[in-house]
Design goal:
It contains 15 helices and 37 strands. It has 729 residues and is an alpha+beta fold. Helix 1 runs parallel beside helix 3, helix 1 crosses helix 6 and helix 2 packs antiparallel against helix 3. GO terms for molecular function: serine-type peptidase activity.
Length: 729
């Protein structure tokens, strides 16, 4: 389609009408108080009542309650009804003077073998099921619930007919052996079921042996079966198991049957293998530590951070005070909360905000780079979530919420939503304050566009205004947000047409383009006409694109011959082995560096946080050693693994970096799973430069700054590569 010159026409965009329902001041106040209390209790109150699997239900059910609360007295009553069954030692009041902490109130005088129980977090273990995540959460001096780990359950016996042995004692003997004596955590073996059973025992790591457990057959039990509960990360094997009943002083073997039908009045005995949670780090809490804070103005909250517990339970127990929470939740929760229509419920949308906000409030390591106060983020996100909206609109609101955190690892995925965008086959680039056509990706160039054309308007809106709007819905450094906005500014969720106002020199024109090509989420900086194959640029200079090629033995054959090598890292490395392989081919002596740090969290609100350093070790590779001069090309599309490479190059003067600053986001991600099948990724660890300076948002600054110009784009030149070559000549 050729360019058409015509006067500006303002088009009215028609959007479907949605009914708006704003939160009242009381509702917002209720939700904020509930949100903060939930985070404190979930992550920092160590009572046994706070089971792992309840928190989505608590967040949804509590949000629904908060929408109905009419005043502060009712708010206090509801907060107590929600949290006392989970955390029986917390206190709520509208008067700070009426709540106080005394050790004696949570120290049972008639219990023995009491130990302090408290949370330690290395980051937050959000139970993603990904075993290699480096984040752990434990309650010291308790055993972690199996939901935290890769749970494995299997029958270890057949079904026993015990109808004629009802009420009699039994003995269960099983051979167990720890296969790895160096396994760091103590392992205990015990049995659990409906009837009183013998205590668990600590496994001997030096030798396998028989372990004997006792119990009583239920008075109405027909059949018994023994199951194993463990997780795949525990190095233990089981041998022969034997079940006997004590009848008239004699051991009798009940009949073992093969019938696997489910029968009424079965008694299932679980043989549980647990690793007792020893401290993750040296810093500990002490009995008597607590927090006292104001959730919202006039609503005060007190919570012990340490409780006492023995093998049976923690104290005080909620069972005698207010029953169990799970039953009340089961009665009130709607099964549709977890189905495809989940986002039609305001309580689900509010719960997503509350859960995500708390995860980030208490574990996100870059709060110094968040410019908006945490409380304001919560209020704004709650208000946005309360408005009736489509699933797509809600996901956009969550993305807007993540934008405050300035983390380019932070992105949102929603099951059931097609995030694909369609756009015209052109790529854009920002040069100074102008947005230009970088490349026309269609060979036929049907739109009459040329590289270097300046885009001034998109569908009659100034391009700067559109970019600014898109940047509000992404997270990261300014350079990364700009890159993401450029990728998406021409996109739409449906194919269709788009109108551009173009300037070429002194000529202004308008053209209509078709949005019919898939839009990539993040386009490498060396895409389009800048893309080139590996090879010799001249007899002394070899070019190698690390974003599209694996650095293997074949690659090193050519690289080791080169007097000069230009590595292109304008994008993400093709695979993560590039870091180890490349650095070890450059260094001449062993290198150890600590740049990444996991938060050691004991207190709420990310206070008094220490950090555990992670050590990287690199050993020289003489066979692949690169003797030539090394130059690296970089820009904002170099992020995470690319920055791990470039950071070492910069800090240890292993080569010269040419281009523009990198993204400024590195470190392993953590993953939050929210109700309604929403998933949010974020950076879970702090990353610095090798010499301890700030990396986040700043990125890695090049040794030689160079970027494209309108003229170089028009001529389809790679100014950054040319500048690198000029350093060699």
């Amino acid at each position: 389609m050729s360019l058409k010159f015509y006067s500006v026409v303002f088009l009215l965009a028609i959007f479907p009408c949605l009914c708006f329902s704003q939160l009242s001041r009381q509702q917002l106040r209720n939700l904020v108080a509930f949100s903060k209390a939930l985070g404190y209790v979930q992550y920092f109150h160590p009572a046994d009542e706070a089971k792992l699997g309840i928190w989505d239900d608590v967040a949804i059910n509590g949000s629904k309650m908060m929408l109905e609360v009419k005043n502060d007295q009712e708010l206090l009553q509801k907060l107590k009804s929600i949290f006392l069954p989970i955390a029986p030692s917390v206190q709520f009041s509208d008067n700070a003077k009426t709540i106080s902490f005394e050790k004696k109130n949570i120290n049972p005088s008639d219990e023995k073998d009491l130990l302090p129980v408290f949370w330690q977090h290395l980051g937050f273990n959000l139970y993603s099921g990904v075993m290699e995540r480096p984040y752990y959460s434990i309650r010291v001096n308790r055993s972690s619930p199996f939901e935290q780990r890769n749970q494995y359950t299997a029958n270890i016996t057949g079904k026993y007919d015990v109808k004629k042995y009802r009420g009699l004692p039994f003995e269960f003997r099983v051979y167990a052996q720890v296969q790895d004596s160096t396994f760091s955590l103590p392992l205990s073996l015990g049995i659990s079921g409906e009837q009183p059973l013998s205590k668990s025992v600590v496994l001997d790591k030096s030798v396998g042996k028989d372990y004997v457990f006792t119990g009583k057959i239920g008075d109405s039990t027909n059949y018994m079966v023994f199951k194993l509960n463990t997780n795949l990360g525990i190095p233990m094997s089981l041998g022969k198991a034997e079940f006997t009943v004590i009848q008239n002083g004699q051991k009798v073997k009940p009949l073992e049957i093969n019938d696997q039908k489910e029968e009424l009045k079965n008694q299932v005995i679980s043989l549980e293998v647990k690793s007792t949670d020893v401290p993750l780090f040296n810093e500990k809490l002490h009995f008597g530590e607590y927090i006292k804070t104001e959730l919202v103005r006039g609503i005060h909250f007190l919570m012990p951070l340490v409780v006492l517990g023995n093998e049976r339970k923690t104290f005080p127990s909620a069972n005698e005070i207010s029953g169990t929470l799970s039953d009340s939740l089961t009665r009130t929760l709607n099964k549709d909360y977890y189905g495809g229509s989940a986002f039609t419920f305001p309580e689900v949308r509010l719960a997503d905000v509350i859960i995500l906000w708390n995860i980030l409030r208490h574990s996100y390591p870059y709060w110094q780079d968040v410019k908006v106060p945490a409380g304001r983020i919560l209020e704004k996100a709650l208000a946005d979530a309360a408005i009736p909206q489509s699933q797509e609109r809600f996901v956009q609101n969550i993305r807007k919420m993540t934008g405050y955190y300035n983390d380019a690892h932070m992105f949102v995925v929603a099951k059931g939503i097609n995030d694909s965008l369609y756009g015209p086959p052109i790529a854009l680039i920002k040069i100074k304050k102008k947005v230009a056509v970088k490349d026309v990706l269609s060979k036929a160039s049907p739109y009459g566009l040329s590289p270097g054309d300046i885009i001034e308007e998109i569908n009659n809106r100034p391009v700067k205004s559109l970019l600014d709007s898109l940047m509000d819905y992404s997270s990261g450094s300014p350079q990364m947000k700009t890159l993401l906005a450029l990728n998406n500014v021409l996109g739409s969720d449906k194919p269709g047409n788009i109108t551009l106002k173009i300037r070429r020199g002194n000529v202004v024109a308008r053209t209509e383009l078709q949005r019919n090509e898939p839009v990539k989420f993040l386009v490498p900086g060396n895409s389009g006409y800048l893309k080139r194959p590996n090879g010799w640029l001249n007899p002394s200079v070899y070019y190698f694109d690390l974003t599209r090629n694996s650095l293997n033995a074949d690659g090193f054959k050519e690289l080791t011959k080169a007097a000069n090598i230009i590595f292109d890292l304008r994008g993400y490395p093709f695979n993560q082995t590039a870091s180890d392989n490349l650095i070890e081919a450059i260094i001449t002596k062993k290198l150890e560096v600590s740049r990444m740090f996991i938060p050691e969290i004991l207190y709420p609100d990310f206070k008094k946080v220490n950090f555990l350093p992670l050590t990287e070790r690199y050993n020289p590779s003489p066979a692949n050693h690169l003797n030539g001069k090394l130059i690296f090309l970089a820009d904002a599309s170099a992020q995470s693994a690319a920055e791990s490479i470039l950071g070492l190059i910069k800090d240890y003067h292993l080569g010269t970096i040419v281009g523009t600053p990198t993204s400024g986001t590195n470190g392993d991600v953590n993953i939050a799973y929210l109700p309604g099948k929403l998933t949010v990724y974020f950076t879970g660890m702090l990353v610095k430069t090798s010499n301890g300076k700030k990396h986040h948002l700043k990125g890695i600054k090049p040794d030689v700054y160079c970027e494209q110009s309108v003229e170089s784009v028009k001529a389809r030149q790679d100014l950054v590569l040319q500048r690198a070559l000029s350093l060699i000549r």
